[in-house]
Known about the structure:
Blueprint: E1 2-9, H1 22-29, H2 32-36, E2 41-48, E3 53-60, H3 63-75, E4 78-84, H4 87-93
Antiparallel strand pairs: 1-3, 1-4, 2-3
Amino acid sequence: MTLYVAEHRHPADHCPAANPQMAPFLLKILSAPEAAKHGITIRAEAVAQGQHHLYVIADGPNEAAVRSWLAPFAQAGTLDVTPASLCEEVVARGKC
């Protein structure tokens, strides 16, 4: 499993949280059981206050699996998925 950081962004005037049909659907995607269907384990998720940016830290088998799991978010804005490392791993390697 590889660690990934995913970031979803959308404009304020198209915020899916304000859509009564879309919001529950997106929350379901961020549930542990739904993530597990894609081989994903969620470590953390958060929305930056007032910025319409969702951050997800998760373990997954590959980038394609993470993108597939979060694909509905890409329909509402942008989605970036980046392989990542824990801080202690970076320090042990001596470089980012």
